[in-house]
Amino acid sequence: MKNEAESYLKSGSNEVRILEYKVSGISFGINILKVNKIVADLHLQTNVPESHASVRGIFEDRGLIIPIIDLAHFLGLPPVDTSQHNKVIITEFFEVSAGFMAERVEWIHHFKWEDVIDSNNVMGEFDNRFVLGMVKPTEDHIISLLDYEAIILDLSPKLRLRQKAATAHIEFDGGGRKILVAEDSASVRAMLVAELGEFGFEVDAVGDGKEALKRLKGTDYFMVLSDVEMPQMDGLALLATIRDNNAGCDPNIPVVVYSSIGDMGMKKRAEFLRANAHVTKLNIPELLEKVRELADNEVAAPKKARKPKTKKLEPVG
Length: 317
Fold this sequence. Notes:
Blueprint: H1 2-8, E1 15-23, E2 26-31, E3 35-40, E4 55-61, E5 64-69, H2 71-74, E6 87-93, E7 96-102, E8 104-112, E9 117-118, H3 120-123, E10 131-138, E11 141-146, H4 148-155, H5 157-166, E12 178-182, H6 186-198, E13 202-206, H7 209-216, E14 223-226, H8 235-243, E15 255-259, H9 264-272, E16 277-280, H10 284-300
């Protein structure tokens, strides 16, 4: 599956392939770039002291200990019948491995990110913090796309604390420079706004690449920090649009790709599209160091020479 994931995605194509699976009879989807493998009939070690109630157990895979998350329990859905031959989707992002229990795996669908419906446009004021968007393979079939980053952060609050502690030694002042953040996960978006704000940056944050393009037009941003997976327009398509001088801003504006997908294929795509850096979520210290480096380069860069103004002489007599 990993080879298929790496082969299909053309840089900046705004394409995504979604693996559909069922939990409590409901269809959910996950980007196949986040899927490591699918396994069945695991022999779990269930005695895990002080673990979250939604962590069903752990298992070992080639020396790696992987927690298994009961999505039905986490999302408040009817329990899954564990007597059946259930599947476990092993994921890897945030440089963290986790397994999500599913009743069955259905199919891989091919979409454009512009086909993804923002859940806020459907759910309105209802609580939907773990649903980012929806796709419709057919008119009467809906697949919900979960905010897996928010789920992992909710289950592992120590991840946030470790990142916070790791930035304690970093000192610099952003000097009020404006940064545009494009990130669909509300949890990660809030974290970035808080972290960058503490270092003296003025941060605007949007939930997708299309909205980021609107903000870029006519606004003097110092840099763009973009996720990859986003509804309407993903981060690679946003980067390609900027570099092709189709965004209404300086095509050379620094762009840092900040993605939970940290494999070499994603890094190469970002490099090919002339991103200034690719940083894996949640590596906040590396991100801040890269932002500081770009800020230092901006200060050190020679200013463009201006033509001296000349006064037009009026004819005498």
